[in-house]
Design goal:
The structure is a homodimer.
Chain A: H1 7-21, H2 32-42, H3 49-60, H4 69-87, E1 96-97, E2 100-101, H5 103-107, H6 109-128, H7 135-149, H8 154-163, H9 171-196, H10 201-228, H11 231-234, H12 240-243, H13 249-273, H14 281-292
Antiparallel strand pairs in A: 1-2
Chain lengths: 295, 295
Amino acid sequence: MNPAAPPVLERYRPAVERALLRVVPAPGGPLQRVHDAMAYSLEAGGKRLRPTLCLATCEAVGGAPEQGESAAAALELIHTYSLIHDDLPCMDDDDLRRGRATNHRVFGEALAVLAGDALLTRAFEVLAEDTRLPAEIRVEMVTALARAAGSLGMVGGQALDLAAEETAVELSGLREIHSRKTGALFGASCRLGALAGRGPADAVTDLAAFGERIGLAFQIVDDLLDETASAEVLGKAAGKDRDRGKATYPSLLGMEESRRHLDQVFEDAQRMLVRFGSRAEPLAELARFVVERSS
Amino acid sequence: MNPAAPPVLERYRPAVERALLRVVPAPGGPLQRVHDAMAYSLEAGGKRLRPTLCLATCEAVGGAPEQGESAAAALELIHTYSLIHDDLPCMDDDDLRRGRATNHRVFGEALAVLAGDALLTRAFEVLAEDTRLPAEIRVEMVTALARAAGSLGMVGGQALDLAAEETAVELSGLREIHSRKTGALFGASCRLGALAGRGPADAVTDLAAFGERIGLAFQIVDDLLDETASAEVLGKAAGKDRDRGKATYPSLLGMEESRRHLDQVFEDAQRMLVRFGSRAEPLAELARFVVERSS
């Protein structure tokens, strides 16, 4: 599925897939079609970066993997819904995602909207119903995930991104788009993992900040890849942002300065892990993968 | 806004509007546009039936109105998001809602999708962050609301409804569509109100069942009004279901038998309130309004 995946993603993959298997609705019955549409995108693979970050963060604060299971699933549910809605004709209008036809190309627009809505809703159900965790932790996770995903987070970032197609954006504006659209959910991935692992409040804060930096790094790399990689490698259309005249790190700073910026963000993130010692080695490995990935 | 609203809706209206005011994002900043789109539909008025049912149920089990405030807001947030997405061109393609232009006609399709997503997300945030209620109650409310709104509830009902445009539906199928599309959220309105008011488990179950019956009654009345009322009275297109050849209670049972069916459902619902005595009088009044309304 992703031959370039580093050992850390492979190590966590069974736990991530197990977590997702538990949240996919059972097959059969009159709702099969909407459940098929949900499963189609959820099972389309992808790097599973957010749930892996979540489980690795849970481990970094001394938690057992099972503790982070529902949070990991919830994060991938949210990420998957956002891809389905972002790909819609009225949004980015993409036909290809992860090398396959996008959800609305297979199931039609109406069902794609509904499948996204259902995945988003299911994320909060999965978090709230996990009786293995104390209710206090669960409400904190629901609150954090909703803030990261909502109008001040990911949805707000997508709205700003759409508006940016029509007006010029400077570096501070681009950073805000990335911070909301990508940084918030990466930050929540680590925040939820740290909460699930019962880390102390200051560890939760630091690890959430680490996640936000990694999200920013991820987005800068995305911008760089959009300039340099081919559609075959990316599994989606390449050069799309550039063709649309959308602001990206390379278009505002040039390639070289963008790479310097990326190094800086990466160093910041690495520093935030120092206090967690060897337990944070998987997180460090994930950070390196985000910066060095080629697709 | 709604001159025919009965006293019970008017009595609860200040509490409902206060609850909603607390959840609308503050104006200003770069996210103004998506927040405007959210507020446009949230403030479009409407009967506020679901939050009123919630507050009245909270009262029926002896709770104070403040206890039900966040649940009431969450229910209207979910209902509002569902209207925005249902009105989209790829779904019911409606231009008019509550007598005003639909969200996508004013803000465009992309922003309408995002505003719906953000309202849905905000519903769970509002429930989870209300520290006036114990965490155990909040996780139970999040779980119940997500189940009612998700692929086995409202979203599933909408998916079945769309599929029903292409295949013949019999009475059992129509009942399932209504039960999921409308009954589930009405049931959750009463369930959340009973939970917020700290009602005992059996009262929560009974009141949720009452809510589901009221939801079914609401939908039968909707079908009857679609046959008989004018667009001016409804504030939306009339006769639309009939024109599309969609199954409705009147189309399957005829007008007279549909009305008999409605009476039966109403009586069932009334019976479920007996054990709650005079405290359930507002709920009884709401049930009567649902059955007797003309728009």
